[in-house]
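Structure first, sequence second, as always.
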């Protein structure tokens, strides 16, 4: 999204009349999510200046700043003081319209460490064409995740839709202050232990990391 993101953090790019992140926040609030921690780094002060404490959006914000990028796992470890015993983690540049309170409830009832939102693309869904999406998940008949990989999509059936519910206890596996990838280092451990389930969504996610994705999301939200 250069050159736009040279001066504006990606979540603050406009979709319609609002920053993308505002659409995300409003979706969460509609689904009963009121406590939100924003993991911010590049130009994060713009985000805090716009959203403040969250009161005018009907929620409460906390901000966890990274002095330099720490990866998904490192960013979570850095934010540990703000996190509940279980929580939802959303990508800051994808939009997924699903019943978050139900997903959170299903996770609370499950005896696993992670519940990942997954979408199965198909050729009939023009919102997320199958030939433009690389699957990165394989599931068993009970919805347990068997494989997660970002390369070599052959044999994989679902897409990581950008939302995952996690137990805070997994942060004990992450060293403090280090760049650490959740997907590359923690997910394989959880899969091997049988501790990652999929929560299959019929709704595709929208990635606003390209002009085409931004246009598709604007059309959905119009």
């Amino acid at each position: 999204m250069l050159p736009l993101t040279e001066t504006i953090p990606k979540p603050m790019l406009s979709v319609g009349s609002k920053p993308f992140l505002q659409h995300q926040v409003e979706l969460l609030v509609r689904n009963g999510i009121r406590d939100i921690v924003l993991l911010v780094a590049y130009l994060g002060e713009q985000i805090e200046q716009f959203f403040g404490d969250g009161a005018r959006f009907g929620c409460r914000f906390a901000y966890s700043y990274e002095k330099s990028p720490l990866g998904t796992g490192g960013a979570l470890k850095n934010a540990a003081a703000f996190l509940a015993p279980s929580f939802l983690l959303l990508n800051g540049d994808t939009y997924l319209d699903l019943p978050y309170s139900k997903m959170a409830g299903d996770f609370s009832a499950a005896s696993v460490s992670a519940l990942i939102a997954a979408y199965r693309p198909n050729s009939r869904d023009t919102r997320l064409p199958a030939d433009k999406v690389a699957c990165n998940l394989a599931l068993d008949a009970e919805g347990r995740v068997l494989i997660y990989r970002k390369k070599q999509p052959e044999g994989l059936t679902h897409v990581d839709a950008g939302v995952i519910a996690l137990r805070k206890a997994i942060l004990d596996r992450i060293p403090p202050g280090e760049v650490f990838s959740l997907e590359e280092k923690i997910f394989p451990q959880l899969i091997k232990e049988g501790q990652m389930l999929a929560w299959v969504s019929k709704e595709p996610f929208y990635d606003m990391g390209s002009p085409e994705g931004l246009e598709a999301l604007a059309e959905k939200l119009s």
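Margin note: The mean pLDDT is 91.
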